[in-house]
Write a structure and sequence with these properties.
Protein name: Peptidase M11 gametolysin domain-containing protein
Organism: Volvox africanus
Number of strands: 20
CATH architecture of one domain: 3-Layer(aba) Sandwich
Structural class: alpha/beta
Number of helices: 7
Helix content: 10-25%
InterPro entries: Peptidase_M11 (IPR008752)
Low-confidence stretches: 1-24, 453-465
Strand order of the largest sheet: 11-10-17-16-15-14-12
CATH topology of one domain: Collagenase (Catalytic Domain)
Radius of gyration: 39 Å
CATH class of one domain: Alpha Beta
């Protein structure tokens, strides 16, 4: 039974851009994640990570179990096998680059210096030059072929990255993609996977409202790797990536979710089933003449995503350990769609979420079974009260989506009942049968025509004498 005090939702402005010419790098058949890692030493500063230790952190060995915390297992678990990453797809090279020098790019020559003030050394433009210098070293000195679909990951020395102001960064929407890891984060898998998701999959950060400041926190979603989560993704990111789809019958819109008619769904844990969450496209808020199909970089209105998240160490470290998450997202599945998912609410069992009007979406959590499924009731409300007029209390609909219909809802107590319909008008009396037609009068037969008068023989003319 619904609560009259559901979780409130603040207004959220989602920022994005629209590039209709972008192409996805992934397909529904899964992704082979190809990368090269450059352990950089430069300016007499040694690399910040040992290649052997890094390989053990990234790859599974012969005796590595599926629950061991490796990068290979993270990608496999959080994508449910849709991403392949192993020692055949990711290579690690120790790369020594000059501290200063010149780099020829096309017809231009660029002078570089990899030691200096932090804002210069840590700038993405400077690190992009370092990637090209490292590429030249790997091709010309190590005699290794490189391809454009191999993401480049720089791991910087401690001495030149201690004051960067970030643990990791990524250059997005370029080919090949580039990731920059500071020395302090050289063995932090969360930073690697987060930045690789920016670079390779063009994912944006996952937001949430800071409940203390009531302001949007760009990293505020702690249920997603792209926010402050550990390793796995939220439902909007999985939808964009084509890794996990909505539950059968759970991709709804204004036609399939009508006012006051609740629908019940059983949700498996999001990371245990390739069809696990609900997606609601609120097409009812659009003007009638507007196309509601998402295309290009942004959809006209944010879609709602509802998923069941349950803790599963070491990869899925959500809090609380079992709950229903509600998100909004204006992005599309296009690779260059730039939009930030926003977590609207975390709902425990027996609690509600109510979106503001004109969306009117209400989510009631009927039950959550630890380690099992969750049952939720989805409803589209016409307002916050069952009683809006006399008809609304006798229309057979749960207009405010609180689980009570018409006069079962206290909102309708004392409300005037809709007047009964007037009786149907009496049918008019039957028309009298038509009078019989009078018989035709009997007339005497006509006299036969008189015969023609006999003709008198004509006199013959006499001839003149």
């Amino acid at each position: 039974m619904g609560s009259k005090n559901p979780i409130t939702v603040e207004d959220v402005e989602l920022i994005g851009s629209d590039d209709r010419n972008g192409q996805q790098k992934w397909t529904d058949g899964g992704t082979i994640l190809k990368s090269v890692v450059y352990l950089i030493s430069t300016c007499e500063h040694s690399a910040s990570a040992n290649p052997v230790k890094l390989r053990n952190l990234f790859f599974n060995g012969r005796d590595t179990g599926p629950d061991a915390l490796t990068m290979q297992n993270i990608w496999k678990y959080c994508s449910q096998g849709m991403v392949t990453m192993n020692s055949n797809t990711l290579a690690i090279y120790e790369v020594k680059v000059p501290c200063t020098g010149s780099l020829k790019v096309g017809n231009n020559t660029i002078d570089y210096k990899f030691i200096g003030r932090a804002y210069e050394t840590c700038a993405v433009e400077t690190l992009g030059i370092m990637v090209k210098v490292a590429d030249d070293y790997v091709r010309n000195t190590l005699r290794v072929s490189l391809t454009d679909d191999q993401q480049r990951i720089l791991v910087l020395p401690n001495a030149i990255s201690n004051n960067c102001g970030y643990a990791g960064a990524a250059a997005m929407a370029i080919t090949p993609g580039e990731v920059y890891i500071t020395g302090a984060a050289a063995e932090n898998l969360n930073i690697y996977v987060h930045e690789m998701s920016h670079s390779y999959f063009n994912l944006q950060h996952s937001m949430a409202i800071n409940m203390k400041t009531k302001e949007i926190d760009e990293y505020g979603d702690d249920s997603c790797l792209m926010g402050r989560g550990t390793y796995c993704f939220n439902a909007p990111q999985l939808w964009k990536l084509n890794w996990v789809s909505p539950l059968p019958g759970g991709d709804l819109n204004g036609t399939t979710l009508t006012i006051g008619r609740p629908r019940t769904f059983v949700l498996p844990s999001q990371n245990k089933n390739l069809r696990s969450y609900l997606r609601i496209d609120p097409t009812w808020v659009l003007p009638e003449d507007e196309d509601f199909s998402p295309s290009g970089g942004l959809s006209s209105v944010p879609a709602f995503f509802i998923s069941h998240r349950s803790a599963d160490s070491p990869f899925e470290n959500v809090f609380p350990a079992a709950s229903i998450m509600v998100y909004t997202f204006r992005g599309t599945k296009q690779f260059y769609s730039i939009a930030y998912p926003n977590r609207e609410a975390v709902i425990p069992s027996k609690w509600n979420y109510r979106a503001p009007m004109p969306y009117g979406l209400v989510v009631r959590v009927a039950s959550i079974i630890a380690g099992g499924n969750a049952t939720v009731v989805i409803c589209r409300a016409s307002g916050d009260m069952e009683y809006t007029d006399a008809e609304s209390c006798s229309d057979g609909l749960d207009n405010d989506c609180d689980g009570r219909v018409d006069y079962e809802d206290s909102d309708c107590f004392g409300a005037p009942k809709a007047p009964p319909l007037p009786p149907a008008p009496r049918p008019p009396p039957p028309r009298p049968p038509p009078s019989p037609r009078p018989p035709k009068p009997v007339t005497a037969p006509r006299s036969p025509p008189r015969p023609p008068l006999p003709r008198t023989p004509a006199k013959q003319a006499s001839s003149r004498p």
